[in-house]
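Example 3.2
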Amino acid sequence: MNEPPSTIPIMPGSLGWLDDELQKLDRDHLRRFRREISPLPGARCLVDGREVINFASNDYLDLAGDPRVVAAAQRALAECGAGSRASALVCGRTRWHAALENRLARFERQAAAVLFPTGFAANLGTICALAGRNDHVFSDRLNHASLIDGCRLSGANTGIYEHDNLAGLRNLLNATPAGGRRWIVTDSVFSMDGDLAPLPALCDLAERFDATLLVDEAHATGVFGAEGRGVAELQGVEDHVAVRVGTLSKAVGALGGFVAGPQELIDWIWNRARPQMFSTALPPAVCAAAEQAIEIIEIEPDRRRRLLQLGALLRSRLAAAGIDAATQAIGPIVPVILRTAERAVEVAQELERAGFLVGAIRPPTVPRGTSRLRITLSSGHESSDVERLADALTAALKN
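Structure, written as tokens:
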């Protein structure tokens, strides 16, 4: 067995600037540090050996550790091993990949679906496969980085709009010269604010200006809609959204991204989306876990009903304490804006000492001056967990 080197390599002189930049991050309270956690049942985890209630996870439906999901992964692991060994385009799909894609297509009520190694890759690859240099892409200012990077890398002419001021988008569309395709790109749930995109209005604009709407349901799949398909289902516009992207790493509790749609769309993405073509496919065990989780989402709607009830409980408790936490929003993402990065870190640390893990979100994830706590709920939480968090946060903000 190889032993680790006895000395730590010295950083090359050409990288000497990194130390100064890291110190600047320290001064601005923007440096992130890696730490180890151990997930526990009931939306708990161990952090540095101490048990806390996890309000920082995206495991909205508490499925990542569900025994049925774990057992499905174990069966596929025993059959196929740990890795997929190659790109799906080169080596082909296992039966686990095919089964998951078929399950996703049925779940989304679409003709077909295609898998990506991550949700980030799904957005990046899909936008670049569809939009090109002669096209026009309109992206919400608060879109996830994967959508923003996809728009940039596509080479298309990109316009930025704000979903709470669609007059700006209308003006951009109206001023766009003829020629090339038009794409409107949006998250359905904005991950740092928790508010929902106005999809009916976006669909109307897309139809009026001959544009195609691409919606990323990353934080909505499994959470919103009577059957858990997301905000497009909730707002009654599924038939008007041309390109539907989702992730398997949040409410589904696994890993990966997907696109669902007409067979022609999926065939085009299969042949043109570089992150899918040139990445090793998801491990079969992950596919098996995700397929089982989708089945649970379909047959256990009480999970999302409970999740939404917990979100309403937390917002009402914070509002009663005079804390602004986007009380007009719904869903499992509850932001508490604290303005400065220093204050966000300080309050998050105080909450952790009180037994709660909450994310301190700072630039560049959010704009300067909008640092915040991002509280995320899980159906695995108890009402008493939420009430205790509200009390702890109220106390922390008074210090």
